[in-house]
Amino acid sequence: MSELSHKDWISKAAVIRFRDKAFIDGKFVPARSGRTFASINPATGETLAEVASCGEEDIELAVAAARRSFESGVWSRAKPAHRKEVLLRLAQLLRDNLHELALLESLDMGKLVNDASTVDVPGSAAIFQWYAEAIDKIYDEVAPTGEGDLVLVRREPLGVIGAVVPWNFPLDMATWKCAPALAAGNSIVLKPAEQSPFSALRLAELAMEAGLPAGVLNVVPGLGETAGQALGRHMDVDCLAFTGSTAVGKLFLQYSGQSNMKQVWLETGGKSPNLVFADCNNLDAAADMAAFGIFFNQGEVCSANSRLLVQRSIKDALVEKLVERAASTQPGDPLDPGSKMGAMVDAGHTANVMRFIESGKKTARLVAGGEQVTVNGRGSFVQPTIFDDVAHQDSLARDEIFGPVLSVIAFDDEDEAIRIANDSPYGLAASLWTDSLSRAHRVAGRLHAGTVSVNTVDALSPMTPFGGFKQSGFGRDLSLHALNKYTALKTTWIKY
Ligand code: NAD
Prior knowledge:
Number of strands: 24
GO molecular function: aldehyde dehydrogenase [NAD(P)+] activity
Pfam family, one: Aldedh
Largest sheet: 7 strands, mixed
Helix content: 25-40%
Protein name: Aldehyde dehydrogenase
Oligomer: single chain
Shape: globular
Bound molecules: nicotinamide-adenine-dinucleotide
Domain Aldehyde dehydrogenase: 29-491
Radius of gyration: 23 Å
Strand content: 15-25%
Number of domains: 2
InterPro entries: Ald_DH/histidinol_DH, Ald_DH_C, Ald_DH_CS_CYS, Ald_DH_CS_GLU, Ald_DH_N, Aldehyde_DH_dom
Distance between the termini: 63 Å
Structural class: alpha/beta
CATH superfamily of the largest domain: Aldehyde Dehydrogenase, Chain A, domain 1
């Protein structure tokens, strides 16, 4: 729980400063066109700031700055031990500015400031620290050619990385791309989502304060179709790392094919199943975590456990517990540390979520929530919502809703549970609850998902790869494996 009170957060919010320009070559600059977009607090409907809306010419400048810094070697050829020191300082600066960063996240996209200050910001600092500490402990290879030849197989930074990220965990998603890419020595042009530009801009400023040279981390706020597309199509971007929807991920593959064949790494959508077997002996824990798995961050989580598959004999008992948990997870003011759920990111997304709920009311049995609400008479909030008796072919069970909407589906045996779980275009994460060790291994092995959590949900750490199967994407964020995305193998063959 955050150490600040509701009143403390409100007074900090009243004086917070929003960085509203692009950050290119170490300086805040307006968009060349002078265009801006409004960043709106979804909990109140108030405009927080008009933010530079970058277009092609701004992307041009940012990529040129990134390229110059990369070729100069000031970061790309700096000793790993030096990169470590700078990134460790950045991790510390994130911690030193915890309250400000948490507030920026909360005001910008509606999440609970309590979660931002205990999960998002500390998580981002921990990831910068983890890659900083790792980078001077990784060795390259010597090929076993034998006498007369010495063959070095080394990993080199790729060059200019474009990173395009979503709004649900703005600072964390930026960090998942920037920390490994910077540790490996690349230069970056980062485009935050238009709903949530502020923490990325502050991150770039803090990175310079930590000692990152100008031009190594550039941030270009702007709309997806303009700034995002310009980055995706740029001829001098070596790699595009994307997190966001599957539909936009597919566009980045096209942009690449139609431009310079840049490497594209996609972390996209999900419809993650949570399987609860009758031999799970702690139904309360399963209910707590199932509720957390779908209501945390208003359900705006790529790996949200949005499909609850329950063995028929325990289904009613589990649903009853979930309805109780939904009742105690109602939306509240995101700045109040006592609130259980925040605001949806914007009015448009709220309308999308409500469309799913309204159509679900005709095809399944609504047992909790189902309404859009306001808090203190304003804002875009949705009640925690549970549908029982959902047919697994129904849109409720197939489409990513990206909101606090749980679909409950009954199954009779293990084979049926696995078949339903895998019958999805997505494969990001899955959870399963059982007291049988054999069943845990058997089922985990057969689920098509990048991460399977057993007797918990959504387990993740900087140490473990995160990413999807099928249309949830490819490549992995986090862990040492993420470094593969931002480096290329170089063979140097020496004859002697
Ligand atoms: P989105 O795809 O709409 O936007 C993501 C980013 O792409 C934003 O920066 C946006 O400006 C940009 N963009 C949008 N249209 C574009 C276009 N035509 N060309 C280029 N760029 C464009 O996604 P969102 O609504 O911001 O986020 C929600 C989605 O993100 C969900 O599908 C969720 O599952 C996914 N997500 C995935 C992960 C993961 O690790 N797999 C993590 C978080 C979120």
